[in-house]
Amino acid sequence: MKTRLALFALLVGIAFSCSQQPKPEEGDPIDDQPQERVQSELVLLMLQMEAHIKSLKERQGRGDSVLPADFIDYAGMLTLATTRGMNRDAAFENNAIDWMNQLKALTEAAGSDQKEIYNGLINSCVACHKNYCPGPVKRIEKLHI
Fold it and tell me: 78-121, pLDDT tens digit by residue?
């Protein structure tokens, strides 16, 4: 009787172990494929803006002034498609316009005033991002001089 019970338990254990789906192993090609990240038009523009701001920071670090020719019109941020879930409102538009005005002021300012205006420009980025997209705030704060 004990032998039959042990044999029955063994068969039930084998049946359950064979019916479960195998767990994917590490290195499984399906798991190794990176997930595609879709970036909105606005995110792509923000990345261009970041590169531009970094170049202005580097120039100032070398002691070179930012020039009027360094101004780039980023008015597209008012109309480009946003990341899913982000709602563009009047406050966003006001922040964007203020930022563009600060960039213009930076490119037109005397060299001695540029550091203060530049840091105000970065503060403007941080303030807007805290309300709409907080993810890159730490990254933006590193742009201060």
Answer: 999 998 888 889 999 999 999 999 999 999 999 889 999 999 99
- Dihedral pair phi/psi, residue 101, rounded to 5°: -65, -40
Question: Structural domain of residue 130, as residue ranges?
Answer: 41-141
Residue 90 confidence (pLDDT):
94
Report yes or no on 45 lying in a domain: yes
Total structural domains within the chain: 1
- Per residue, the 3-state secondary structure of 88-103, as one string, reads CCHHHHHHHHHHHHHH
Alpha helices (H) along the chain: 2-19, 29-32, 41-61, 90-108, 114-132, 137-141
Is residue 64, in this structure, part of any structural domain at all? yes
Q: Which long-range contacts (CB under 8 A, 24 or more apart) does 124-130 make?
A: 124/95, 124/98, 124/99, 125/99, 127/95, 128/92, 128/95, 128/96, 128/99
Q: Is residue 35 part of a domain?
A: no
